[in-house]
């Protein structure tokens, strides 16, 4: 099987590594890839990932048996539709179904129709509407840009003026009730009807230790979660995943690909914070490091409507930790072009290799150190050991990824 992977971040690097481990995968072509992916994949090509025609054309040209679309923007742009129109199986939802991520307002409508537990919310387009919504819920205030914002469109603050300012800046926002409780990312592989959950993971959105500072795309992750009630995944599949998929089918926009369910575990049970239409980054790096089932076969089954017949997933009996190394100034204004050394064995999130052969930073999140261990302590130690060899001037990373879980300080308020 020849697989074309679209994207070039840390998630796509992890997907390429996973696909290359599948004995049924004969070639992985990555576009546009990255210096890290160039070493892992069979071949790298350049493409405008936001152009459905260009991606579909490339899929035909490289004789892909399967296309896997990593990031959300091409999905929202309709890349999966164009690939399927050429008769090539594609792992990723249609442009209409990707609105589950592309519009917070659309996602809320689907959740309401499907009776999925989530925060109460108002969609607001004027300062007066925003002010009324903020005062309905009180602090802490949660204000979300309605459109795609690469994980940075959300402001959670006790400062009413800051909440109003974010609303004014975004134009159209969703303002919602604050959900209190530890967060879980659950990835569900689906062909639109059947659905298979991966191991639950947790990511760390804030830039600084102790969950301080602004939101980022994600500063680290670990899996599985030792602190969740044993029936959590089953419960979320029954109350969130299946009702959502059914609602999407009934609306005529069936969702296939990866449904990313972001949850808060509140006293009243798990509630949805967000849906994404693709694998999460950096959780994917941790989750796929534990998957023993061949990845290509799983994604192909989902892309061809054959997931019901797929064997049960096999996982390593281990834990996995990912620590992100971000550039100076991230997330406000990431500095790029810094020289990187010692990146062997790391996943590349935002790097480039210049003509002189030097590896340089090329994005906010630069590298990911992913490691496994028999417990969280061992996995953490191994990930930070890997990171200790890297030099990136001004680089920032959190020192407390998975630490609270390792120390038993994460408690589910719901059983
Ligand atoms: P989102 O892009 O919707 O995932 O939001 C980014 C982050 O903001 C989440 O991971 C949460 O940490 C936080 N957040 C979003 N919505 C809420 C909410 N209703 N209550 C509490 N925190 C939230
Ligand atoms: N880790 C958060 C995301 O991928 O959106």
UniProtKB/TrEMBL annotation:
Keywords, ordered alphabetically: ATP-binding, Ligase, Nucleotide-binding, Purine biosynthesis
Domain ATP-grasp residue range list: 108-304
Listed cofactors: Mn(2+); Mg(2+)
Pathway membership: Purine metabolism; IMP biosynthesis via de novo pathway; N(1)-(5-phospho-D-ribosyl)glycinamide from 5-phospho-alpha-D-ribose 1-diphosphate: step 2/2
Example of a GO MF term: ATP binding
Record EC number: 6.3.4.13
Database matches in SUPFAM superfamilies: Glutathione synthetase ATP-binding domain-like, PreATP-grasp domain, Rudiment single hybrid motif
PROSITE patterns noted in UniProt: ATP_GRASP (PS50975), GARS (PS00184)
Protein name: Phosphoribosylamine--glycine ligase
Native source species: Catellatospora methionotrophica
């Amino acid at each position: 099987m020849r697989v074309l992977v679209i994207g070039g971040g840390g998630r796509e690097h992890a997907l390429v590594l996973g696909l290359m481990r599948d004995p049924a995968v004969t070639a992985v072509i990555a576009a546009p890839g990255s210096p890290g992916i160039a070493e892992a994949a069979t071949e790298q090509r350049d493409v405008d990932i936001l152009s459905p025609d260009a991606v579909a054309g490339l899929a035909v040209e490289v004789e892909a048996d399967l296309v896997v679309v990593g990031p959300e923007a091409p999905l929202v742009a309709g890349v999966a539709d164009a690939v399927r129109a050429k008769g090539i199986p594609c792992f990723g939802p249609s442009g209409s179904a990707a609105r589950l991520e592309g519009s917070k307002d659309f996602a809320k409508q689907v959740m309401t129709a499907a009776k999925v537990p989530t925060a109460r919310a108002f969609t607001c387009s004027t300062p007066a509407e925003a002010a009324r919504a903020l005062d309905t819920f009180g602090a802490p205030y949660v204000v979300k840009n309605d459109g795609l914002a690469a994980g940075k469109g959300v402001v959670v603050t006790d400062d009413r003026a800051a909440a109003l300012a974010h609303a004014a800046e975004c134009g159209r926002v969703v303002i919602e009730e604050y959900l209190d409780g530890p967060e879980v990312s659950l990835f569900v592989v689906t062909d639109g009807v059947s659905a298979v959950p991966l191991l639950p993971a947790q990511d760390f959105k804030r830039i600084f230790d102790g969950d301080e500072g602004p939101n980022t795309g994600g500063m680290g992750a670990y899996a599985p979660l030792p602190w969740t009630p044993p029936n959590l995944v089953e419960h979320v599949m029954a109350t969130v995943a299946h009702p959502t998929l059914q609602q999407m089918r009934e609306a005529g926009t069936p969702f296939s690909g990866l449904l990313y369910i972001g949850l808060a575990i509140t006293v009243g049970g798990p509630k949805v914070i967000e849906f994404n239409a693709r694998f999460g980054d950096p959780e994917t790096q941790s989750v796929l490091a534990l998957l023993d089932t061949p990845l290509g076969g799983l994604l192909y089954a989902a892309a061809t409507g054959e997931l019901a017949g797929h064997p049960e997933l096999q996982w390593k009996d281990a834990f996995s930790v990912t620590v992100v190394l971000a550039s100076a100034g991230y997330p406000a204004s990431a500095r790029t072009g810094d020289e990187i050394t010692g990146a062997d064995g790391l996943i590349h999130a935002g790097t480039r290799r210049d003509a002189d052969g030097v590896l340089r930073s090329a994005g906010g999140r630069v590298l990911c150190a992913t490691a496994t261990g028999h417990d969280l302590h061992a996995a953490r130690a191994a990930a930070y050991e890997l990171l200790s060899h890297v030099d990136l001037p001004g680089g920032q990373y959190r020192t407390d990824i998975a630490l609270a879980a390792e120390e038993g300080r994460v408690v589910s308020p719901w059983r």
